[in-house]
Design brief:
Keywords: Heme, Iron, Membrane, Metal-binding, Monooxygenase, Oxidoreductase, Transmembrane, Transmembrane helix. InterPro entries: Cyt_P450, Cyt_P450_CS, Cyt_P450_E_grp-I, Cyt_P450_sf, Cytochrome_P450_monoxygenase. This is Cytochrome P450. GO terms for molecular function: heme binding; iron ion binding; monooxygenase activity; oxidoreductase activity, acting on paired donors, with incorporation or reduction of molecular oxygen. There is one protein chain. The longest helix has 30 residues. Strand 10 and strand 11 form a beta hairpin. Helices cover 57% and strands 10% of the residues. The model has no long low-confidence stretch (mean pLDDT 86). It has a domain of 352 residues: Cytochrome p450, CATH 1.10.630. By secondary structure, it is an alpha+beta fold. The protein starts with a helix and ends with a strand. The structure holds protoporphyrin IX containing FE.
């Protein structure tokens, strides 16, 4: 196993200090602190000089790829804005660079002796995610970072294991299955608006609502029912053990951010040593979630054997396929619960935001929805909601502007080339959906603006390309693209119809306070506060 330059220098420092100590022992002299400082200073100073001045200019195989001159400074800026001030996410920085740096589809971000590339155009993205996908894998660090929560499900499987997992999970996400889930999603969306209605001040027809918490709860309830036939009842605040564990695992605190950072960089033993309290809490919660999930799986398997599993959910489908072991089922379940819950709630929140600041669009959409859903039968929901041009256009436009997962990433798994530039094994590749979704050359000069009409054709029907030549990158591309796209869209349609048919809303906070933030998914940093008025 090769060692990094930093590790080599650290080893050299240790050897030099050891030899120095021996020499001083012989001459019976003491060990002055200034000598120790000098050994550290000279070695790490040389390393810094090499990384800042020699490597990027003379050694880096990607030195001819355009990119910011001072990638190190950029990395600090991204970190400061993303983590400390929460004013800007990394994807926004990369978008600014992509727009201001002439490039052919990749830019290089150099920092301290390593270079990462950012894909900026659909062609290079297709190369990495589709045509040459076998040369790239998910980054091991990301896997280490998210694995405690996501499990070893589809998101992190590679090669044959992924192919098998995807093939046998896909049937649970087919159109017919999603259609059957509409009435449940509709019911939960109605429950959400009923609960929100109760929170408005008694005796008043309007009130202030922070919508993120309701979006998170309704999407957890929906994925619970769709995924494993279990109602978390998180909307009605009944304390569910599984829901509570999830809330604790996914809520963002400084301590947890540090824990995730250490977990992605160090071994679990080392992390346990440095942060014993948080590690114990996280390990207990993960173990509890796994145990509860496994228990539910066994219950379902028992019911299926007895032939009385009348349930219709993804887990039941996976069990009845007999394709997965109990451990694999638990991993798939954990992955579906997490990836199917956070992303959808975030998308819904951004839809509420855009409709709050574009009152004309809100009115137009309400009229469309109210006309369409009057007297609708549950079985008609898929065809009616999927045919509404403005509802779908608004949804697609918001998903374009605020891709809930703004960046995907890969690492080169072998030495390879991209656009003729050598890419050494282990090179990190960032794929920001944000760049492509807002590229003026693909969407026109109004790429940053909210214009749902771009998704509506002249004949009045909505399309899936938004006037762009490649569509949006929100759900990824190729064989690893999102399996839950149809599921999520069905859910968003139901949730938005429920909101529009019960409330009118405006923003109840300064617009400058609505800023995207987050490490994996992006939600408003300060929540989304709305002033809501019940429709009579
Ligand atoms: C707005 C909502 C959603 C967005 C924006 C989204 C986005 C994505 C993206 C970009 C990927 C590709 C990641 C990569 O290639 O690195 C992905 C993969 C995935 N998504 Fe989603 N997703 C959403 C909702 C869902 C839902 C509702 C589910 C499940 C119920 C789901 C399950 C998955 C799974 C299992 C994968 C891994 C697929 C594979 O590797 O084969 N997602 N998603």
């Amino acid at each position: 196993m090769g060692i990094s330059l930093f590790q080599a220098v650290t080893l050299a420092v240790a050897v030099e200090l050891f030899l120095l100590g021996k020499a001083l022992q012989k001459s019976d002299r003491s060990y002055p602190a200034s000598w120790i400082a000098s050994v550290f200073g000279i070695n790490y100073g040389l390393l810094l000089f090499y990384n800042l001045a020699i490597y990027p200019v003379f050694v880096d195989p990607l030195r001819n790829v355009p990119g910011p001159r001072y990638g190190n400074v950029l990395a600090l800026k991204v970190w400061y804005n993303h983590v400390v001030t929460k004013r800007k996410i990394g994807a926004q920085f990369y978008t600014e660079i992509a727009r201001t740096t002439p490039n052919e589809g990749i830019i290089a971000i150099r920092s301290f002796g390593s270079t990462m590339i950012v894909l900026t155009q659909p062609e290079t993205i297709t190369t990495v995610l589709v045509n040459e996908r076998l040369s790239y894998t998910k980054p091991p660090q990301l896997r280490k970072f998210l694995r405690p929560i996501l499990g070893d499900g589809l998101v992190f499987l590679e090669g044959e294991e992924h192919r098998f997992g995807r093939k046998h999970t896909q049937p649970a996400f087919n159109k017919a299955q999603i259609n059957d889930l509409y009435p449940m999603m509709w019911g939960k969306a109605q429950e959400m608006v009923a609960v929100i209605g109760k929170t408005l001040e008694p005796g008043y027809e309007s009130g202030k609502v922070e919508i993120v918490r309701w979006a998170t709860r309704v999407s957890l309830d929906i994925i619970g029912l769709a995924g494993l036939g279990h109602d978390f009842h998180s909307l009605t605040d009944v304390k569910d053990k599984l829901a509570g564990d999830y809330e604790e695992l996914t809520e963002t605190t400084w301590g947890k951010l540090l824990w995730f950072l250490l977990m992605s960089r160090l071994s679990p033993t080392m992390t346990r040593f440095l942060l014993p309290g948080i590690t114990k809490t996280m390990e207990d919660r993960v173990a509890s979630v796994r145990n509860l999930s496994t228990k539910m799986i066994y219950e379902k398997m028992g019911a299926a054997k007895d032939g009385d599993d009348g349930q219709f959910d993804i887990l039941s489908l996976l069990i009845s396929s007999n394709d997965f072991s109990e451990a694999q089922l638990t991993d798939h379940l954990l992955t579906l619960l997490v990836s199917g819950h956070e992303t959808t709630s975030v998308a819904f929140v951004w839809m509420c935001y855009r409709l709050a600041i574009h009152q004309d669009a809100q009115k137009r959409l309400r009229t469309e929805v109210l006309n369409a859903i009057a007297g609708v039968e549950p079985s008609q929901l898929p065809s009616i909601l999927e045919g509404l041009p403005f509802l779908n256009a608004v949804m697609l436009e918001v998903l374009r502007l605020y891709p809930p997962l703004p960046m995907q990433s890969r690492v080169a798994d072998v030495d390879t080339f991209i656009l003729g530039h050598p890419l050494a094994k282990g090179t990190r590749v960032l794929i920001p959906a944000w760049i492509v979704n807002r590229a003026p050359e693909l969407w026109g000069p109004d790429a940053d603006e909210f214009r749902p009409e771009r998704w509506i054709d002249e004949d009045g029907r909505h399309n899936n390309m938004g006037g762009g030549s490649i569509g949006s990158m929100t759900f990824g591309r190729g064989p690893r693209g999102c399996i839950g796209e149809g599921f999520t869209k069905a859910e968003l349609r139901c949730m938005m119809c429920a909101m529009l048919s019960h409330f009118e809303w405006t923003l109840n906070m300064p617009i400058s306070e609505v800023v995207p933030s987050g490490s994996v998914t992006i939600r408003p940093a300060n929540g989304l506060h709305l002033k809501m008025k019940r429709l009579v």
